[in-house]
């Protein structure tokens, strides 16, 4: 526990105060930025900055020419007050007076000193990079001597620290409980969006930037003799556009053919956004022999409770049709669904006009269940009837044998 001091003792709502070290550390570690308050030339200053906690010391990031860093030079250091807040929800009461917020906050006070040891500074910068992504320090270039010289760090020992928090629901006055107004809590949380790569980046999105999800929503890497399935990424836009440039690839798909790599990037971004929402699991297909990107495929309608998943949003460059790539990709996806995820049902949907796709699905061993009338809208605005096929876990053993036998033939049929 941190000791109470005159500065950390609340004058009101003391029941919201805490001095627990673990609680304070948890809030400091979860937040990415803080407000740094200090006095310069007799005037108050508050600056937003990055921070990282290492043990019992809070380190504050800055440049060597910034006001607080200049003021912290010398043995006396710089008296500071650091505040962080996590807003967890908005509380809507029946009365305006009792509207509130759920939050967790930490205030740390003391004297900060400039970090002068180069080794300590380098270690803190590594810790700061690791805070934004565990493993990032090994996945990026370390700072040069010049960059270290231009970077400054303040070290604040965590000695005078308080935690303040509000949790729970509405706290209306008894006389207001019968008022005809909605009351309750709207939870808030900070969530990461889809990573947007810089121009020219060809490296895939690293694992530490992908959210932890149910195994059903995880685009695991799968490899066979003909094809490798890897998580779809915006960096695949150029190759995917080139591979699927034939209009015949897009004739029965739900969207228009991209006119350039930038539009292909928009298609991929939509797929990744659907994955972020838990609606789809997209893979890129690579030719196992050459490593070239040749197409994409996805799980969708993922339903772990009913142990069901659909395979679709599949498009493959025409040069790789009837090459074995599509057959093996389906074998990998079916193996993933039935044997790793425990699915009991795998579904396919295809345009009723796409007889080629229907024959391909039937060759997989799926059974035609029926037609969903006016099920989806085509790129030209017309409504399509969709043929639905299904393979059950009971049908999977025989289908697996058949698929493997087809792949052993000299010219596998996609």
UniProtKB/TrEMBL annotation:
<dbReference type="InterPro" id="IPR016181">
    <property type="entry name" value="Acyl_CoA_acyltransferase"/>
</dbReference>
<dbReference type="InterPro" id="IPR000182">
    <property type="entry name" value="GNAT_dom"/>
</dbReference>
<dbReference type="InterPro" id="IPR024747">
    <property type="entry name" value="Pyridox_Oxase-rel"/>
</dbReference>
<dbReference type="InterPro" id="IPR012349">
    <property type="entry name" value="Split_barrel_FMN-bd"/>
</dbReference>
<dbReference type="Pfam" id="PF12900">
    <property type="entry name" value="Pyridox_ox_2"/>
</dbReference>
<dbReference type="Pfam" id="PF13302">
    <property type="entry name" value="Acetyltransf_3"/>
</dbReference>
<keyword id="KW-0808">Transferase</keyword>
<protein>
    <submittedName>
        <fullName>Protein N-acetyltransferase, RimJ/RimL family</fullName>
    </submittedName>
</protein>
<feature type="domain" description="N-acetyltransferase">
    <location>
        <begin position="224"/>
        <end position="394"/>
    </location>
</feature>
<dbReference type="GO" id="GO:0016747">
    <property type="term" value="F:acyltransferase activity, transferring groups other than amino-acyl groups"/>
</dbReference>
């Amino acid at each position: 526990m941190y000791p109470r001091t005159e500065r950390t003792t609340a004058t009101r709502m003391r029941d919201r105060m805490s001095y627990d070290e673990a609680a304070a550390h948890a809030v400091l570690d979860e937040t990415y930025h803080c407000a740094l308050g200090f006095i310069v030339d007799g005037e108050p200053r508050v600056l937003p900055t990055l921070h990282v906690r290492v043990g019992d010391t809070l380190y504050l990031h800055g440049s060597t020419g910034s006001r607080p860093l200049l003021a912290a030079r010398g043995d006396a250091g710089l008296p500071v007050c650091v505040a962080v807040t996590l807003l967890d929800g908005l509380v809507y009461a029946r009365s305006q007076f009792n509207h509130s917020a759920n939050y967790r906050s930490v205030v740390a006070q003391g004297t900060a000193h400039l970090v002068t040891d180069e080794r300590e500074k380098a270690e803190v910068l590594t810790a700061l990079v690791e805070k934004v992504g565990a493993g990032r320090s090994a996945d990026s270039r370390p700072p040069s001597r010049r960059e270290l010289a231009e970077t400054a760090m303040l070290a604040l020992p965590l000695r005078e620290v308080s935690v303040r928090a509000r949790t729970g629901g509405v706290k209306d006055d008894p006389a207001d409980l019968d008022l005809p107004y909605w009351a309750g809590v709207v939870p808030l949380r900070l969530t990461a969006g889809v990573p947007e790569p810089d121009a020219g980046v060809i490296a895939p999105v690293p694992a530490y930037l992908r959210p932890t999800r149910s195994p059903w929503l995880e685009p695991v890497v799968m490899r066979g003799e003909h094809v490798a399935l890897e998580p779809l990424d915006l960096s695949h836009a150029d190759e995917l556009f080139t591979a699927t440039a034939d209009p015949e690839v897009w004739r029965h798909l739900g969207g228009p053919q991209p006119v350039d790599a930038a539009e292909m990037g928009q298609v991929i971004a939509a797929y990744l956004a659907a994955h972020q929402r838990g609606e789809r699991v997209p893979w890129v297909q690579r030719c196992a022999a050459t490593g070239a990107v040749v197409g994409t495929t996805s799980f969708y309608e993922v339903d772990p409770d009913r142990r069901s998943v659909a395979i679709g949003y599949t498009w493959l460059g025409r040069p790789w049709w009837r090459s074995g790539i599509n057959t093996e990709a389906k074998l990998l996806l079916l193996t993933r669904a039935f044997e790793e995820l425990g699915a009991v049902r795998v579904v396919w949907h295809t345009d009723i006009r796409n007889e080629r796709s229907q024959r391909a699905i039937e060759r997989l061993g799926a059974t035609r269940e029926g037609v969903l009338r006016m099920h989806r809208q085509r790129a030209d605005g017309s409504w399509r009837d969709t043929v639905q096929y299904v393979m059950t876990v009971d049908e999977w053993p025989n289908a697996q044998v058949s698929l493997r036998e087809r792949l052993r033939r000299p010219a596998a049929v996609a």
